[in-house]
Amino acid sequence: MIIRVRFGKEGALRFIGHLDVLRTFQKIFRRAEIPMVYSQGYSPHPIMSFALPLGLGLSSEGEYLDAEIEEMAVQSPPPASLCEAPSPASGGGQAVVDEVAFPFGEGGPPTQSVVDEVLKRLRAATSPELPVYAVRVLSEKAGNAMASVGRARYRLTFREDLAKPLAAAADRLLAEKQHIIEKKTKTQTVSFDLRPCLYEVTVIRAEGSGEEPHPPASQDDPLFAPHCLRIAQAPPPAFPGGGEAVLLLVLSAGSKANVKPELVWEELLKTAGLPAEEKPLAIRRLDLMTEDGSSLGEV
């Protein structure tokens, strides 16, 4: 059985690398006593893959991992007879519920029961800086998370006095049919067209209305409706007292074309004629999507 886990990256854990996140989740699954499927060979390791590594220092509420797990023990529902009358063996009328290992598939409990149990165990085994938002079972036809990524959604916060020139620069950038830039790789500098990689570039100014910003995503939200999903679908909040503005980006991501939000920020500064030293106050990844714009949490 293959499950997809949506999780976040907050606080000090923003500064740990991708391999550290991988090793941490292997420990989280072991701590949660979720039986994983291991690879074969001389050095077996848990079958687990991540959608797209997050840049160091960035926070996120839209990270995904796929893991293959074996059957596990879940609580069986109490028999109807125990619900109708107290059980003498329970000492006080409490229903005695046994943990039974159900195989996934026909004959077992509803998949939702297994998903709820996995989510509960993962949340109990992780930390607030690596929150787990949702778990779902993948169909046999679903591709793995890494191969499915086609777009990424980001939110950048910056000084409000830059909002007007950056908004004008975004309009000019989106109006272009072609925007050739130079991108440095580990071995060389290559030229490529940035324009087809931009699906959304929106600047939103804070009005200083005094409204409270959205609270951080909570691990206690209902399954499959985590607060992080509502944040990603709603306009960003106004910041108390003004002073900050928001840049929303939807960019190409994945193996075909992976555009970092810092690169788009630099191009907006150049287009607006602003100093290259200007930096965003924070960068947050909101979600990862497929080529057609569907969230990986919905595939």
DSSP strand count: 12
Spatial extent as radius of gyration = 23 Å
Distance between the termini: 16 Å
Low-confidence stretches: 76-109, 207-241
Number of domains: 2
Please tell me the overall pLDDT.
79
Helix content: 10-25%
Main β sheet profile: 8 strands, mixed
Order of helical and strand elements: EHEEEHEHEHEHEEEHEHE
How does the overall form come out from the CA principal axes?
elongated
| Beta strand % | 25-35%
Q: What class, by secondary structure content? A: alpha+beta
Number of helices: 7
List strands and helices in order, with pairings.
Blueprint: E1 2-9, H1 18-31, E2 48-50, E3 59-68, E4 72-75, H2 80-84, E5 99-102, H3 111-125, E6 132-137, H4 145-148, E7 151-159, H5 163-175, E8 180-184, E9 189-193, E10 198-205, H6 227-233, E11 244-252, H7 261-272, E12 282-289
Parallel strand pairs: 3-12
Antiparallel strand pairs: 1-3, 1-6, 2-3, 4-5, 7-11, 7-12, 8-9, 10-11
